[in-house]
Design goal:
With about 100 residues, the chain is α+β, with helices and mostly antiparallel strands. The protein has five helices and four strands; from the N terminus they run H-E-H-E-H-E-E-H-H. It is globular and about 35 Å long. It holds the Pfam family Glutaredoxin. This is Glutaredoxin family protein. Belongs to the glutaredoxin family. CC-type subfamily.
């Protein structure tokens, strides 16, 4: 859990993903389209990936644990949370407050 928390706090937007997860790619693409430069940790390519995946599953309360999106060091959730924030107009202000975008 400490590894996840430390990594999530290092950048404005951090996404924990796997290289083959289509929902992770969707969230990453959406954020990039807004001008965000997210830090992406692909768990299947990290030697600590399994440990981090277990920690994320515990934080999220579900599996699969990816994508797990942190904005401003806080866990926002997964794809459905990001899309809901976007559709309600809350995502852009959240990204601005975290310093992820400046528009």
């Amino acid at each position: 859990m400490d590894t996840v928390t430390k990594l999530a706090a290092q950048r404005a937007v951090v996404i924990f993903s796997t290289s083959s997860c289509p929902m992770s790619h969707t969230v990453i693409r959406l954020l990039i389209d807004f001008g965000v430069n997210p830090t992406v940790h692909e768990l299947d390519k990290d030697p600590r990936g399994r440990e981090m995946e277990r920690a994320l599953a515990k934080l999220l309360g579900r599996t699969p644990a990816v994508p797990a999106v942190f904005i401003g060091g806080k866990l926002v959730g997964s794809t459905e949370n990001i899309l809901t924030l976007h559709m309600t107009g809350s995502l852009i202000p959240m990204l601005k407050n975290a310093g992820a975008i400046w528009v």
